[in-house]
Amino acid sequence: MGAEMGAETGQGHRWSSVAKNAARLRVSRMGVSWGGSRRGLLLACGVLLTLLAGSAAMGAGDDPRPDEHSSAQAEARLPESGTPATYKPAYRYPVIEELKAEHRARQAERDSLRGLADERYDAEAKREREDRQSLRLDWSAVEKPSSPEAFAPAFHFPPQPQYKTRTCWAFCSVSFFESEAFRRTGREIKLSEMWVVYWEFVEKVRRYVQQYGHANFGSGSQDQGTREIFRQYGGVPAEAYFGLPAKGERHDHTEMTAAVRAYLEHVEETDFWDEEKVIAIVRTILDSYLGPPPRDVHLRRPDLHTRGLSGNRARPRHGRIRQYRLDDG
User: Fold this and answer.
1) What range defines the domain where residue 238 resides?
2) Surface-to-core class of residue 243, CB atoms within 10 Å of its CB (0-12 exposed, 13-18 middle, 19+ buried)
3) Residue 229 falls within a domain, yes or no?
4) CA 20 to 30 Å from 297, out of 16, 145, 166, 212?
């Protein structure tokens, strides 16, 4: 008690001194003055520092130990057994445990299917390596044409540059279909190469997911790929789908192909083989580089609408788009 009273007395003496010094501080419209001198201003700053130091000392001097009254209240809140707390096993929510079990079952099923797919495609790749052959032709007995004039010319549009796309297969095969359309209908219809490239990318991603990463993915393909895309999705004129966000730019698929390939690597690393969700994400990548493909095409020439491009709409296998398809007219 004596020590506490002494501490309180000392504290009170200090605060009384501070009060006396503060009383000497005069504030006027001209500014702060202490006896009208610069020394008074310094003393005023000292008073403020003393006030701040006193507040910190009072906060630090508080006794953190609970007093008898607070201890009694804490003991009154304890259980009658007198035991303040006991360790028990963590509570497990039945619903959460059921969801975890379902997830493990689905993951085990996916792992089993992927394991079977790995075995199958590894065996096929080994068999292809063992049975690989090369076809060689003896050109010595072949009578070669002397010049292009030896051929009967066919209608075709001027060559279209593929630039940096690695999709020469689409440009040459689409050109063939344009020539064939003119031969059969007499109409000049410039078709969109990028329409074919867009949906070929989608179908490659579909096969990649269905075969758990064992299908080939890249920009290359062959002319039968164009025929299959026309069979599933139909075709559109080049003016309806140019395949560039801004018409007039040059095709460059370097970043687009790299982005799709990187995402497919992520799919394989994370074992995420949800076909429709993967295709939806890949299509957002394609849309950002090629532009979204049109769902309906309105042709400018009525005769192409009624005859050359019939009202029979191509029905894709997966029912996502509706387009006009070239027929015999």
Assistant:
1) 161-326
2) buried
3) yes
4) 166
3-class DSSP state for residue 242?
coil
Q: State yes or no: pLDDT of 3 exceeds 80.
A: no
Q: What type of residue is 13?
A: H
Do 172 and 295 fall within a single domain? Answer: yes
In a domain, 119, yes or no: no
The number of angstroms, rounded, from the C-alpha of 79 to the middle of its chain's C-alpha atoms is 54
State the DSSP H helix or E strand holding residue 321, giving kind and residue range, or none if neither. Answer: none
Angle at 199 (CA atoms; ends 169, 297), nearest 5 degrees:
105
Task: State whether 175 and 321 are in the same domain.
Answer: yes
Q: Does residue 229 contact residue 316 with C-beta atoms inside 8 Å?
A: no
Cα–Cα distance between 325 and 234 in angstroms, integer? 5
Q: Say how far apart CA 171 and CA 137 lie, in whole Å.
A: 27
Q: Kind and range of the H or E element at 72? A: helix 68-77
Q: Which amino acid is at 162?
A: Q
Any idea what the CATH number is for the domain that residue 206 is in? 3.90.70.10
Beta-bridge mates of residue 323: 314
The total number of structural domains in the chain stands at: 2
Token pair for residue 6?
């002494």
Is residue 53 domain-resident?
Answer: no
**Shared-domain flag, residues 186 and 44:** no
Report the predicted TM-score, pTM, of the whole model to 2 decimal places.
0.56
Nearest to 114 by CA among 266, 274, 273, 275: 273
Give the SS3 label for residue 272.
coil
d(CA 54, CA 62): 13
The helix or strand, by DSSP H or E, that contains position 310, with its residue range, turns out to be: strand 309-314
Helix or strand holding residue 326 (H, E): strand 323-326
The pLDDT tens digits of the residues spanning 21-33 come to 444 444 443 344 4
Give the tens place of pLDDT for each residue, 298-320.
Answer: 766 544 432 333 333 333 444 33
Residue 36 within a domain: yes
